[in-house]
Amino acid sequence: MNVVNELRVRIRKDTGRNERALIEVSVHPFIVRYKEAFLEDNILYVAMDFCSKGDLSKYIKRYKKTNTLIPERKIKRWLLQIITAIKFMHDRKLIHRDLKCNNIFLDDEERAKVGDFGLAKIFENTEQTNTLCGTIGYMAPEICRNVAYSFPADIWSLGVILYELMSLRHPFKSEHSNMLSTAQKICEEEVCAVGRQNGKNIQKNGSNMEQIWRKSGANVAQCGDNVAPKL
């Protein structure tokens, strides 16, 4: 059960329409199933499928403790699953806007499932928005600059997720960074080298993803064309 303060919900004028759309879009093997939502005492409760293996951020922390890298085969599998889920969303005019390791959950079989659609938006007549939202460190440069953005913003976030899985660290944030310095690094595209020693294919995919980052105009189909065939 996911609990969200009503204040966050009130910001969204189209909550009812989005709820119906989320129930529809969540019927996918790599998206957390969104079942129902109800309001009680100014709190919105969202019923979703339980993912017993936690999320990718916990997985990364576990590998950090043992000072070992996540096996390449796991990263390949998750990447393809996430790309498939994003394509499914984008084909239905839904942009997630808060993709990050904390929002990629793992089920009993460790399949990746995209979750937490609290900031998702449905595009209708327009294909761009300029609402400042998301999680700093995963926001695309155009969001940090407060200019219009669209579906490619999700692809940027996917690139950050891939970087973290490969290197066990964030490409823009450090222990001493704050929100402002992180946003500045994103806008200036100061990405550190991954430095992964094993897995030539995954390194090559990382380079392709970095090119997608720098363009920040690719769609999920282009992302799949650049990455998936090589996995």
UniProtKB/TrEMBL annotation:
<feature type="domain" description="Protein kinase">
    <location>
        <begin position="1"/>
        <end position="231"/>
    </location>
</feature>
<dbReference type="InterPro" id="IPR000719">
    <property type="entry name" value="Prot_kinase_dom"/>
</dbReference>
<protein>
    <recommendedName>
        <fullName>non-specific serine/threonine protein kinase</fullName>
        <ecNumber>2.7.11.1</ecNumber>
    </recommendedName>
</protein>
<dbReference type="InterPro" id="IPR008271">
    <property type="entry name" value="Ser/Thr_kinase_AS"/>
</dbReference>
<dbReference type="InterPro" id="IPR051131">
    <property type="entry name" value="NEK_Ser/Thr_kinase_NIMA"/>
</dbReference>
<dbReference type="GO" id="GO:0004674">
    <property type="term" value="F:protein serine/threonine kinase activity"/>
</dbReference>
<dbReference type="InterPro" id="IPR001245">
    <property type="entry name" value="Ser-Thr/Tyr_kinase_cat_dom"/>
</dbReference>
<keyword id="KW-0723">Serine/threonine-protein kinase</keyword>
<keyword id="KW-0808">Transferase</keyword>
<keyword id="KW-0067">ATP-binding</keyword>
<keyword id="KW-0418">Kinase</keyword>
<dbReference type="Pfam" id="PF00069">
    <property type="entry name" value="Pkinase"/>
</dbReference>
<dbReference type="InterPro" id="IPR011009">
    <property type="entry name" value="Kinase-like_dom_sf"/>
</dbReference>
<dbReference type="GO" id="GO:0005524">
    <property type="term" value="F:ATP binding"/>
</dbReference>
<keyword id="KW-0547">Nucleotide-binding</keyword>
